[in-house]
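Known limitations

Files may contain more than one protein. Parsers should not assume a single record per file. Below, a two-record file is shown to illustrate correct handling: read the sequence, read the token line, then continue until end of file.
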Amino acid sequence: MFRIRKIIASITLMLIILTGCSSEASLTNEEKVTGVVNNYLEALESKDISAMVKYTDDLRFPDKEEQKKQYKNIEEEITDTKIVEVKQVSEIEFKATVEIVSDGKLNELTFPIQKQEEDWKIIVGQDF
């Protein structure tokens, strides 16, 4: 009887581990994009330059080192951020509308997010 319980416990543990491992692979594109936007907003609030560069494709700076250098000069105080909406535009493009409190002022911005190779990138620096 003890041996059967041990086998059942082992199988249950194995199923839990396998389910946890496969959940990352089964994320929808919308969930992946929402995660990228959340990570970017957290980076804005904490002024994490490396993460800001990682999650964006800034059209103003084709060179990532130049992008980092320019981002270090940002003086805005971003105190709060929130995703308003993430909407799919096509198979490889989404639009995210976010609210950002910068220097005490609430701004609502919409960013395109595009799939580039295997990663989703927030496109910034474009003219509207």
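...continuing to the second record:
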Amino acid sequence: MDKIKVNQMMFYGYHGLFSEENKLGQRFTVDVELMGDFRKAGQTDRMEDSIDYGQVYEVTKEIMEGKAYNLLESLAETIAQSMFDSFSLLETITIYIDKPGPPIPGYYQSVGVEVTRKRDDYEA
């Protein structure tokens, strides 16, 4: 399976359980790994035969900078669903969301969530 990776996309959002997170917001980084058969794109050199990286960014941005979520898990799930809705060539996606300096007791560089979903997970 072929992979397209878009790494370290940065967004400012208001996600979290604590009121200060919802009020002040913070920076988040997101990595996405999109898997599918992109062989035709390699042969034709046509964007229509692949997934547009710029559109991947825009789909992610709309969610990360939109409605506030309590959990990173919910953000990741929403991004996954939106990617499958947006890109018919997408077969599997892995999303990693990183939240630097979380407001929880202790010393942390960051906390994060990684999810992997397949198109079949959304088709009944």
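Parsers that stop after the first record will miss the second one. For reference, the second record is described as follows. The domain at 2-122 is CATH 3.30.1130.10 (GTP Cyclohydrolase I, domain 2).
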